[in-house]
Design a protein that fits this description.
Length: about 375
């Protein structure tokens, strides 16, 4: 029995995701699929449209055999942390035979070359990034400029694509973790990752979210772009996840704390900007724009604010790194046979959390603190849906 591993958000699960899952499974002759899926907080610095357990069940209905949670510490983080977490979870699960992902290109030699350059950091490459960031460039823009000395313009454009960036980080993580894992890529089908239009029965998840959150469409209007299970899951929800629903929590933290640089992703400078800007607070999204500068991306600002809301500290991330980016594995959903879940219990080298009581039974004090913070973050998320 061969198992395919996928790392995803499925926010929400759409036809492109279904195509990727089935195509990767067929291409690699796999019998089972395990998915490492973001919980209720996402890599763009937002909250998921619908709860993680509903999204996980949808994934199982559409072909996944087991869905495991990537917790907030890694799901709402940089591409490097997100990828490192996903790869580490697959590695420590002990049940993955091949990693599969969708990307804007199937040129593995190009992806591997970019990955190697970023990991090895040649002197000229490092110096260019250092010089440009000192001039106010954001890190992604500085890195793209530095890469021009090593790859052609098409490769540079590829670095603007979210899935390509993640693919490169997956390859870096596999190498850094010294995991002898084969990987397989298929070219994304249909609309681009953040595209604002749909084509040939395919659209991006961001397109679906925008239509639903704006009130311009209901799930049935978008049924041509999603499997029936997603349409039904979305139609049962009276409210969708929106970062602005987290505004009361953010405002509370801004006035509860005097400094913020103990929070992950918040530097001393950003901490000062938070202190001076808090009196102008209106909503989460507007506040993030207020804090935006040319040397830091908006998504990083949003992630930092989510970390502030949920008390995700630099110390917490140190613990995550001490555990090889995989402190424990929480099971979100499994297919009816639960065969892959049984295999997980036998093969994993980290604690498996399936029942509510498992944390108290299997985790040490540091890991329990992480789990409690994750659960509190989920409670805030659920409350925000009712706001």
């Amino acid at each position: 029995m061969k198992t395919l591993g996928i790392i995803a958000e499925y926010d929400p699960f759409h036809n492109g995701h279904k195509y990727n899952l089935n195509a990767l499974k067929e291409k690699n002759n796999c019998d089972n699929v395990v998915v490492i899926m973001s919980g209720n907080y996402t890599q763009r610095g937002d909250i998921s449209l619908i709860p993680k357990d509903i999204r996980a069940l949808t994934a199982v209905k559409e072909g996944a055999d087991l869905v495991l949670e990537l917790p907030i510490f890694l799901s709402c983080s940089s591409a490097m942390d997100f990828a490192r977490g996903g790869i580490s979870f697959l590695m420590h699960s002990g049940i993955t035979d091949v990693l599969g992902f969708g990307c804007e290109t199937e040129d593995m030699s190009l992806l591997s070359r970019i990955s190697d350059i970023i990991s090895e950091e040649p002197e000229d490459y490092k110096n260019t990034i250092k010089e440009l960031t000192s001039l106010g460039y954001s890190f992604p823009k500085a890195r793209a400029e530095a890469l021009k000395e090593y790859v052609d313009e098409n490769a540079i454009k590829l670095m603007e694509e979210p899935n390509a960036i993640l693919a490169i980080e997956y390859l870096r993580a596999i190498k850094d973790l010294k995991w002898d894992m084969p990987f397989s890529v298929i070219k994304r089908k249909g609309a681009a990752h953040d595209s604002d239009h749909a084509e040939e029965g395919f659209c991006s998840a961001s397109y679906i979210r925008e239509k639903l959150l704006s009130g311009g469409s209901d799930p049935y209007d978008l049924a041509g772009f999603m499997p029936d299970s997603t349409v039904m899951a979305l139609s049962r929800h009276m409210a969708y996840g929106d970062a602005d629903n987290m505004s009361p929590f953010l405002l509370s933290e801004l006035y509860r704390l005097n400094s913020f640089d103990h929070i992950y992703d918040i530097s001393y400078d950003l901490s000062n900007r938070l202190r001076f800007a808090k009196d102008r607070f209106t909503t989460f999204s507007e506040f993030a724009l207020t804090l935006k500068t040319k040397d830091i991306t908006l998504s990083r600002i949003r992630r930092a604010l989510m970390h502030l809301i949920n008390d995700v500290t630099k110390d917490d991330m140190d613990v995550i790194k001490e555990t090889d980016y995989c402190p424990y594995i929480s099971v979100l959903a499994a297919n009816e046979s639960k065969d892959l879940l049984k295999k997980l219990y036998a093969a994993s080298d980290v604690p498996i959390l399936y029942r509510d009581s498992d944390g108290e039974r299997y985790l040490n004090e540091k890991m329990m603190l992480l789990l409690k913070k994750s659960k509190k973050a989920d409670q805030r998320y659920i409350y925000s849906l009712k706001a």
